Known about the structure:
With 76 residues, this protein is of the alpha/beta class. Helix content is 41%, strand content 13%. The protein has one domain.
Amino acid sequence: MVKGIEKYGIPVVHMCTVVPISMTVGANRIVPTIAIPHPLGNPNLDEKEEYNLRKRLVDKALDALVTEVDGQTVFE
């Protein structure tokens, strides 16, 4: 689906916990996340820390979205 959307010139960021799977499906902009059961959070953190963690991940994805890439790029 990622490649299909990008074919029309719409950039896509694939946020994932298993980067090799994203590479296999052909995602160009990949943002690694936290863990399979909690990709965009960590239930062991307090509310403020988890908010900051989620905000950093979303900010990284937004930065990736506006970054020109030539092929697959992982945004660490």
